[in-house]
Design a protein that fits this description.
- The protein is 22% helix and 26% strand.
- It is an alpha+beta fold and 100 residues long.
- The chain has one domain.
Amino acid sequence: MNNVRITAIRKASYPDLIAQYENPIEHTCDVQEGQQWISVDGKCPEGMCPEAWKSMREFVEALARGEGNFFDGWMKNPLSAMISCNDGFRPVSFYLEVVE
């Protein structure tokens, strides 16, 4: 199986949506832009946000198996994907890519 590097590319925040819809919370996302993890055998890497993992797991597992070319040529690199976590207030975009 392939290893898959997961890189946090962009972290957004929507203060208007937070103010309008979210109850105050004490702890938000700890992920930093540029942070990386390596998935071995399609498994969740240590330290990966469990909610972010849920949004990317199927893509990581497919890339680990050697599959790719999602959505008929969506990505320039067919052995990669750009996936965002499911936090609608503070989404993080993750670049997934097969590494040797």
